[in-house]
Amino acid sequence: MSASAEDFLRRYHDRNPDANSTLGLSGQVVGDGRKSYDVLADRVAGARRVLDLGCGDGVLLEILAGRGAEVLAGIDLSSGELDAARRRPALAGADLRQGRAQELPFEDGSFDAVVSHMALMLMADVPVIAAEAARVLAPGGTFAVAVGAGPADAAEVFLSLARPMFDAVPKERQLPKAGDPRTRRRDGLDELLAPAGFEPVSWDTLVLDLGGPAEEVWHRCCETYYPVSTLDDAQLAELRVAFEASTRELLTEDGRLPSGAKMSLAVTRLRS
C-alpha cells in the first residue's frame, strides 16, 4: 500500500470507525449461519495470545476475548477505529496501537496466533508483513486471514455497473491503488508467506448472505466499495437508476433482493 493509500484509509476510517464491522456483522455465512468474524475466530481456537492486524474497532478481538484469549493486541492505521475498540469493556486490557503491520511494535515470539479480517488484502509490502508476523509468533504459531473474493448476486451487478464510473472519474479524484492482488489467491498467498517460514495455507471460500430489502442492499453496496466516495451526486443518481433496473428481476416474491460477498479464509502455521 502506498503512503497515499494508507492516508486515504486512515482518513476514511477515522470518519467511519465502524464501517467494516457493520458490514461484517450484517451477513451470515450461507449454509452455516455464523458471522465471518466467528468463522475466523474458530481458526485460532485455543490460542491464548492473539494479535489482530488491521483490528479496526475491535470486533474480532472482542470475540476472541469471549473465547478465552488472555493476551490481546491489535494494530490499525486509524485512531478513530482504535478509540472505538478501546470503548469495548472486553478490551480494557488489550494492547491497541496505532501503526503499520509492516513495523510491528511487539517483541519476538509474543503471540500464539496472528489474525487479520479483510485487511491484509489492502496492504502493500506483504512479504515484510509476513516476516513481521513470523517474528512475533511463537514457533508453530498460527497465521489466519480473511480476504475478499468478490461480490455475488446484486452486489455483483452493482460492481459491474459502478466500475466504468470509477474508471471515468478524473485522475485527481481517483483513489490510490491499495493492496497486493496475490493475497486473494491461494498460490499467491503461499508465494508471499513461504519465504518467512510459513507452511502452505489451507484455503476455504465462503459466501456471506448480504441480501435484504432493495433499499438496504443499495446502501450496503455503496458502503462496501471505497471508490463510491469519488462519485458525485449526479453519478450516484445515475448508478442507482441503473442498479434498480438491472436487479428488478432478482427480487423475490417477498421483496427481498439476493446479494452477497465471497470471502476466502487462509490458515497457515509457522514452521517450528
UniProtKB/TrEMBL annotation:
<comment type="similarity">
    <text>Belongs to the methyltransferase superfamily.</text>
</comment>
<keyword id="KW-0808">Transferase</keyword>
<keyword id="KW-0489">Methyltransferase</keyword>
<feature type="domain" description="Methyltransferase type 11">
    <location>
        <begin position="51"/>
        <end position="144"/>
    </location>
</feature>
<dbReference type="Pfam" id="PF08241">
    <property type="entry name" value="Methyltransf_11"/>
</dbReference>
<protein>
    <submittedName>
        <fullName>Methyltransferase domain-containing protein</fullName>
    </submittedName>
</protein>
<dbReference type="InterPro" id="IPR029063">
    <property type="entry name" value="SAM-dependent_MTases_sf"/>
</dbReference>
<dbReference type="GO" id="GO:0008757">
    <property type="term" value="F:S-adenosylmethionine-dependent methyltransferase activity"/>
</dbReference>
<dbReference type="InterPro" id="IPR013216">
    <property type="entry name" value="Methyltransf_11"/>
</dbReference>
<dbReference type="GO" id="GO:0032259">
    <property type="term" value="P:methylation"/>
</dbReference>
<dbReference type="InterPro" id="IPR051052">
    <property type="entry name" value="Diverse_substrate_MTase"/>
</dbReference>
